[in-house]
Design goal:
The complex is a heterodimer. Chain A is mainly alpha-helical. Chain A contains 14 helices and 10 strands. The C terminus of chain A is likely disordered. The chains are: A mainly alpha, B mainly alpha. The structure holds CIS-heme D hydroxychlorin gamma-spirolactone and protoporphyrin IX containing FE (HEM) (2 copies). One protoporphyrin IX containing FE sits at the interface of chains A and B.
Chain lengths: ~450, ~350
C-alpha cells in the first residue's frame, strides 16, 4: 500500500466513522426536545421517560463524536499539510465558526444531560433546543468547507499561489447550498428512520407498548418529512454536478461517452476497460431530463477528461446506486406512513408498515456513507477540484500504513463497544411493564427516568 | 502590535484556557489512578462527578486553538503536522481513549468490575496524553522544528520525524505539563469535595504536586540551557525575565501557603495564575517566532482579509460563548448548587 493510499484510507475511515456520530448528534437532540416538550404540554410522564432514555444513549454517541471529530481536525494537518497550507486561510473561516458551534453545543449538552434537576424545566428545554440548533449548524459549517473543495471560490490562482483571498466568497461557493441542504436532511432522515426502525421492530413483538408507540411517532415526525424531501434535494445536487463537476456525475452514472439525450443508467456493473456498463437498466434520455430538465440536453461523459483524471468509476457508480435506491425506498415508506396517518390508521397495528420501517433501520446511515463516497471518491484525483491534486497535498512522512492500521483498529474497537452498549440500552427498554397499555397522568407514578 | 500578533495571542489564550480547564480534567484522571487509602472509591466518584458536565466544553478549547491556528497561520499548522506526526498521533489516541472510556464508564451502565476497567483505561490515558502534549510543546520551544528538520531533505526518518521531539528538554516539558495538570486538579478538587475528609485528601495531594511542580520547573530550566536556546535567552537572560520569575515564584509560594491555611478559593485562583504565568513566559520567550528558529508570526500569517474576519467572528462568538460558559459553571460549580437544586425541587 502506497503512502498516499494509506493516507486516503485513514482519512476515509476516520470520516466514515465520525459521520455516524455527527448525524446522530444533529438529529437526536431534536427528537429529545420534541419528547420533552410533549411531556411539559401533556404532563404524561411517559414522554419524560422517553427523553431521558434517548439522552442516555445520546450521551455515549456524543462523546465518541467529539473525540473522533478531534482526530479529524488534527488529521487535516497530519495527513494533508499541503492542503492546509494552501486552503487554511481561504476555508478556515467555516471551521472557526464550527468551533463556536461546538462550544455552544458542548456547553448546553452538559446542562442538558446533567441538569435534569438542577435547572428549571423551561431552561432545560431551552438547553436542548440550543444543542439541536448548534449541532445542525456545526454540520452546515463543515459541509460548507467540503463544498468549497468541490467548487473552489474566493481566491485567484497565480503561479500556484492563492491571492486576493476572500473567505466570504469561499463560503458562498456554488455547491454550498445544495450540499448543506442535502446533508442536513440526510441527518434527520437517517436518524429518524433508525430510531423509528428500532421501535417498530419492538412494536411488532409488543404492539400495545405505549412507550414504543410514542417513540415511533416522534421519530417518524422527524425522519419522514426529511426522507420525502431528500430525493428533491438530491436532484438539486445532481444538477449542480452536471454543470460544475461533470466528471463526478459521469462516474456516478457510469456515462462513458458525451452524448445528447443521455440515458439514465440504473444498477449494473461498469466495465472500465470496455467502457460499458453491463446488466444495467437504461431509461432513454432519462439522465438528460434529470440533469438539465431537457430530454435532448448534452451530458458530458468520462471521455471529456483524460483517463488519468478519472475517479474510481465502479465505486462511485455503485455507491450512487445504493444511495438513490435507499432514497427512493425511504421516501416511499415515509409517504406510506403519512398516508396511513392521514387516514386515521393506528401505525402500531399496521404490521406491514412496521416491517417496512424496521427494515429501514440501517438504511439511512448506509445512504449517508454511500453519498459521501460519491462526493469524496468522485472528486479524485483532486482534493480541491481542478486546483490541487490529492497526491500533492499528502504529507511527506513515510510509513503511513502504521497510523492507518492503528486508527482502523481503534475505530473497530470503539464501534464494537458502542454497538454493544446501545444494544443493551435497547434490550433493556421494553422491560418496563409500567408503560404497557396506556400512559400515566403526570405525577401519578414514580419517576421511571433512566438518567441518574 | 500587529493584527497577526493579536491573533497569535488569542490562539495562546485558547491554549491557556485548555491548560487550565482541560488540563485539570487530565489531572483528575491522574488522581483517579493514584487514588488510595480508605476513601479511594469516594475520591474516584468525586473526580468523575466534577468532570461529567464540563469535560466536553473544556475539551473544545483545544479544538478552538487548533482551528484558529490553521486558519490564521496555515504554514505553522502544516509544519507541525509533518514534524510532530508521531507524538500528535499518539496524543489523538490518548484523547480518543480517554473521552470514550470516561463516557463508557459513567454512562455505559456497566457496574462493578467491568465498569472499573473503563475507569482504569480512562486514568491511564489521562496520564499519557499530557506527557505527549507537553513533549510536543517542548519540541516547539526547543526550536528544532526548523525547515531543515523535515524528512524530505534526505536527512532520514529518525532525524526528520523523531529527533526533533525526542529530546531531554522536550520530555522534561512533558513531565512538567503532567505535574502542572495534576496540581491544578488537586487544587480544584479541594473545592469540589463536600466533606472535610475528602478535602484533606486533595489538599495533601495538591501540596505534594505543588512541590513536584517546582522541581519539574527547575528541571525544565536546567535542560533549557542546552536544549532550548530561545527559551534560555528569554527565561534567563532577557530583561523581563527576572521580574517574571519573581512574580511566578511569589504566586507559587502564595498558592502553597493558601493551601496550607486552607484558603481554597484563593489557592485555586493563585494556582491558575501561576500556570498561566509560566505559559506566557514561554510565549514571550519565543516571540516573534511562532515556530522557532525560523518561522515568525508575521511570515506564517494568513492574508489580512482572513485575519480581520476571524477577529470579527471571535468578537461575535465571545458574546455568545462567555455568558454560556459562565452559566454552565454557575450551575455545576457554583457555591450554592445544592441549595438551588432543592429550591427547584420545591417549585415543581
Ligand atoms: C439519508 C441519506 C441520503 C439519501 C436518502 C440520499 N442522499 Fe444523496 N447524499 C447524501 C445522503 C443521502 C450525503 C451523504 O449526505 C451526501 C454526501 C455529500 C453531501 O453533501 O450529501 C450525498 C451526496 C449526493 C450527491 C453528490 C453531491 C456532491 O458531490 O456535490 C448527489 C448527486 C446526490 N446525493 C443525489 C441524491 C439523489 C438523487 C437521491 C435520491 C433519492 C439521494 N441523493 C438520496
Ligand atoms: C463525514 C463525511 C465524510 C466522509 C464519509 C468522507 C469520506 C472521505 C473519503 C472516503 C476520503 C478518501 C477519498 C480518496 O482519497 O479516494 C476522503 C478524503 C478527504 N476528505 Fe472527506 N468525507 C467526508 C466529509 C468531509 C468533509 C466535511 C471535509 C472537509 C472539510 C472532508 C475533507 C477531506 C479531505 C481533505 C480528504 C483528503 C484528500 C482527498 O482524498 O481528496 N471530507 N473523505
Ligand atoms: C473534515 C471534516 C470534519 C472535521 C475536521 C470535524 C471536526 C469535528 C470536531 C473537532 C468535533 C468535536 C466537537 C466537540 O468537541 O464537541 C466534531 C463533532 C461534530 N461534527 Fe464533525 N468534523 C468533520 C466532519 C463532519 C461532518 C461531515 C459533519 C456533518 C455533517 C459533522 C458534524 C459534527 C457534529 C454535529 C458534531 C457534534 C458532536 C456530535 O454530534 O457527536 N462533522 N467534528
Amino acid at each position: 500500500m502506497s503512502d498516499l493510499l494509506a493516507a486516503r484510507s485513514q482519512m476515509g475511515i476516520s470520516l466514515a466513522f465520525h459521520i455516524v456520530f455527527a448525524v446522530v448528534g444533529i438529529a437526536m437532540p431534536l427528537m429529545m426536545v420534541v419528547a420533552e416538550r410533549r411531556w411539559q404540554v401533556t404532563g404524561h410522564e411517559i414522554y419524560l421517560d422517553l427523553a431521558k432514555r434517548w439522552s442516555r444513549g445520546t450521551a455515549i454517541l456524543f462523546a465518541v463524536g467529539a473525540v473522533s471529530g478531534t482526530v479529524l481536525s488534527f488529521e487535516l494537518g497530519l495527513l494533508w499539510p499541503g492542503f492546509m497550507r494552501f486552503a487554511g486561510a481561504i476555508i478556515g473561516m467555516p471551521f472557526s465558526l464550527e468551533g463556536f458551534a461546538f462550544f455552544t453545543e458542548a456547553i448546553f449538552l452538559g446542562v442538558y444531560l446533567y441538569g435534569w434537576d438542577r435547572v428549571p424545566p423551561p431552561a432545560h428545554l431551552g438547553a436542548g433546543l440550543i444543542v439541536a440548533a448548534s449541532g445542525a449548524l456545526s454540520g452546515i459549517f463543515v459541509v460548507i468547507a467540503n463544498a468549497w473543495m468541490n467548487a473552489p471560490a474566493g481566491f485567484v490562482l497565480v503561479h500556484g499561489q492563492a491571492v486576493n483571498v476572500d473567505p466570504i466568497a469561499a463560503m458562498a461557493n456554488s455547491a454550498a447550498l445544495e450540499q448543506t441542504l442535502h446533508m442536513t436532511l440526510a441527518a434527520y432522515a437517517a436518524t429518524g428512520f433508525a430510531v423509528a426502525g428500532v421501535h417498530a421492530f419492538l412494536l411488532l413483538r409488543d404492539p400495545d407498548n405505549a412507550f414504543h408507540r410514542r417513540a415511533l411517532t416522534i421519530a417518524l415526525m422527524v425522519g419522514a418529512p426529511a426522507a420525502v424531501l431528500q430525493p428533491l434535494s438530491g436532484d438539486f445536487a445532481a444538477r449542480h454536478l452536471a454543470v460544475h463537476q461533470p466528471v463526478k456525475l459521469a462516474a456516478a452514472e457510469a456515462l462513458f461517452e458525451t452524448q445528447s439525450g443521455a440515458p439514465l443508467t440504473i444498477g449494473g456493473w461498469p466495465d472500465v476497460e470496455k467502457r460499458a456498463t453491463r446488466f444495467a437498466i437504461e431509461i432513454p434520455r432519462g439522465l438528460s431530463l434529470l440533469a438539465f430538465h431537457d430530454p435532448g440536453a448534452e451530458v458530458k461523459g468520462l471521455d471529456a477528461v483524460p483517463r488519468n483524471e478519472w475517479p474510481n468509476i465502479t465505486a462511485v457508480h455503485l455507491s450512487f446506486q445504493v444511495m438513490v435506491g435507499i432514497g427512493t425506498y425511504l421516501a416511499l415508506v415515509a409517504l406510506w406512513a403519512g398516508w396511513l396517518t392521514w387516514r386515521g390508521a393506528d401505525l402500531a397495528h399496521a404490521r406491514w408498515l412496521l416491517r417496512a420501517v424496521a427494515l429501514a433501520t440501517p438504511m439511512g446511515f448506509i445512504a449517508v456513507e454511500a453519498g459521501w463516497m460519491v462526493t469524496e471518491l468522485g472528486r479524485q484525483p483532486w482534493v480541491i477540484y481542478g486546483v490541487l491534486r490529492t497526491a500533492d497535498a499528502v504529507t511527506p512522512m513515510p510509513g503511513l500504513i502504521v497510523p492507518f492500521l492503528t486508527f482502523t483498529l481503534l475505530y473497530g474497537f470503539l464501534a464494537v463497544i458502542v454497538a454493544w452498549l446501545l444494544y443493551r440500552q435497547i434490550v433493556r427498554s421494553p422491560a418496563v411493564p409500567e408503560w404497557r397499555g396506556f400512559y400515566m397522568p403526570r405525577g401519578g407514578m414514580r419517576d421511571a427516568g433512566g438518567v441518574t | 502590535m500587529s493584527l497577526a500578533d493579536l491573533l497569535a495571542g488569542i490562539v495562546f489564550v485558547a491554549l491557556n484556557a485548555y491548560a487550565l480547564l482541560g488540563g485539570a480534567d487530565y489531572g483528575g484522571g491522574v488522581w483517579g489512578l493514584l487514588a488510595g487509602g480508605p476513601r479511594k472509591q469516594r475520591q474516584q466518584e468525586l473526580i468523575a462527578e466534577a468532570m461529567g458536565p464540563v469535560w466536553e466544553a473544556n475539551h473544545v478549547w483545544l479544538i478552538l486553538a487548533l482551528v484558529l491556528l490553521f486558519t490564521c497561520f496555515p504554514p505553522a499548522f502544516a509544519r507541525l503536522g509533518i514534524v510532530l506526526h508521531i507524538p500528535l498521533s499518539l496524543v489523538l489516541i490518548g484523547i480518543v481513549l480517554r473521552g470514550s472510556a470516561f463516557t463508557f464508564w459513567r454512562y455505559g451502565g456497566a457496574a462493578g468490575e467491568k465498569g472499573r476497567r473503563w475507569g482504569v483505561l480512562f486514568a491511564v490515558a489521562s496520564l499519557i496524553t499530557p506527557l505527549l502534549l507537553g513533549t510536543a510543546a517542548g519540541a516547539i520551544a526547543s526550536g528544532r522544528l526548523g525547515q531543515e528538520a523535515r524528512g524530505e531533505g534526505g536527512v532520514g526518518f529518525y532525524a526528520g520525524y523523531v529527533a526533533p521531539w525526542l529530546t531531554p528538554f522536550a520530555l522534561s516539558v512533558g513531565v512538567f505539563a503532567l505535574v502542572a495538570f495534576a496540581f491544578l486538579a488537586g487544587v480544584y478538587l479541594t473545592l469540589e469535595a463536600e466533606d472535610a475528609e475528602l478535602q484533606e485528601d486533595f489538599r495533601r495531594r495538591a501540596l505534594g504536586s505543588g512541590v513536584a511542580l517546582f522541581c519539574a520547573a527547575l528541571l525544565v530550566l536546567v535542560l533549557s540551557l542546552g536544549g532550548a536556546p530561545l527559551v534560555r535567552e528569554g527565561l534567563i537572560f532577557a530583561p523581563a525575565a527576572l521580574p517574571l520569575h519573581l512574580l511566578t515564584a511569589t504566586t507559587a509560594v502564595t498558592a502553597l501557603a493558601a493551601l496550607g491555611y486552607r484558603r481554597y478559593r484563593l489557592a485555586r485562583l493563585l494556582a491558575a495564575v501561576q500556570v498561566s504565568l509560566i505559559l506566557w513566559g514561554w510565549a514571550l520567550s519565543q516571540y516573534p517566532y511562532i515556530l522557532p528558529p525560523d518561522l515568525t508570526i508575521a511570515a506564517a500569517a494568513a492574508p489580512r482579509a482572513t485575519l480581520r474576519l476571524v477577529l470579527g467572528a471571535l468578537a461575535l462568538g465571545a458574546v455568545v460563548l462567555l455568558p454560556s460558559l459562565f452559566y454552565l459553571f454557575r450551575i455545576f460549580k457554583g457555591r450554592d448548587v445544592r441549595h438551588q437544586t432543592s429550591d427547584i425541587r420545591r417549585q415543581t
